[in-house]
Amino acid sequence: MKNSMKKKLSTLVEDIYQTVTDITNGDKKISDKLVDELGQQIARTIKTWSTPQHRNKFQLRMSNIGKPSRQLYYSKKNTKEIKHHPSTQIKFLYGHIMEDLLIFLTKLSKHKVTDEQKEVSVDGILGHMDCKIDGEVIDIKTASNFAFKKFQNKTLAEDDPFGYISQLAGYERAEGTSNGGFLAINKESGEIALYQPEELDKPNINNLIGNIKKSLVDDNPPPDKCYKPIAAGTKGNMKLPMGCVYCSHKIECNKDTNDGKGLRMFQYAKGIEYLTTVKSLPRVQEIIYES
């Protein structure tokens, strides 16, 4: 009887939604054990966030092998990193907490969660995977409405600036599985999506690691820029694309922009825009970066 009731990964999202409906209708109770586990996990998350680890020496890890080679180059060179704004740090914190909540909802819906934060290794590259759900490697993600659509519409492979699919492929290579994916939550709407990439969308992780190691040889020049600037309005201004905005090395990487004067930063209502070319001066406050 137990086997016949075994949950399938393919029904995870609908099972979570049904569980939430049952709870809010008063048809299902949450066990004290699961609530206590969630509280303890959130406490650990806050402690980890408030005591960041500063590695003195750059290391390739499963979490960064999918990032562009130029970004890794600057990380290896220990280029001075621009600090994130406090609002961004807060966003990181509640993103981590929402990931804890998503695992909690998965357990609540009776799907099997194992191997949380298990350490794995491929070709000497270490990583800690989020978990397995129903026997498959699953990476938990929180996303803006825009980014969530990549998981919901299964288009992440077309635009994956943070190398999520490469990271997943590494975990799967270590575990000998092949049907894993991403469980994502839209932090604006609360929608959930499960995205399992096709095998053809995943890189050969051993080849990828080998190529990255070659590109980071000390005597090599910086790899080509990861992305091209995009239009900022209609008056000739150009700005960094989203793949560059969250990169800690964007100042050093783009010091040749604006005729050698470097990036210019402007505070818009929706956030900071990093302009590589200024033809028409924006009518908003310019932020002067002090190195």
How would you sum up this structure, described in words?
This protein has 291 residues and is an alpha+beta fold. It is built from 10 helices and 12 strands. The protein has helices at 12-24, 32-50, 69-76, 86-108, 145-152, 164-175, 205-215, 242-245, 250-253, 257-260, and strands at residues 113-114, 119-122, 125-128, 131-133, 136-143, 181-186, 192-195, 230-231, 238-239, 264-268, 271-277, 285-287. The strands form 3 sheets. Strands 1-4-5-6-7 form a 5-stranded mixed beta sheet, sandwiched between helices. Strand 10 (264-268) and strand 11 form a beta hairpin. It is globular, with a radius of gyration of 21 Å.
Summarize the structure.
The protein has 291 residues and is of the alpha+beta class. The chain has helices spanning 12-24, 32-50, 69-76, 86-108, 145-152, 164-175, 205-215, 242-245, 250-253, 257-260, and strands at residues 113-114, 119-122, 125-128, 131-133, 136-143, 181-186, 192-195, 230-231, 238-239, 264-268, 271-277, 285-287.
CA-CA gap between termini: 65 Å
What percent of the residues sit in helical stretches (DSSP H or I)? 25-40%
Shape annotation: globular
Radius of gyration: 21 Å
Q: Name the strands of the widest sheet in spatial order.
A: 1-4-5-6-7
Q: The biggest beta sheet, please?
A: 5 strands, mixed
H/E series: HHHHEEEEEHHEEHEEHHHEEE
Which percent range describes the beta-strand content? 15-25%
- Beta strands, count: 12
Quaternary form: single chain
Low-confidence stretches: none
Mean pLDDT: 91
Structural class: alpha+beta
Number of distinct helices: 10
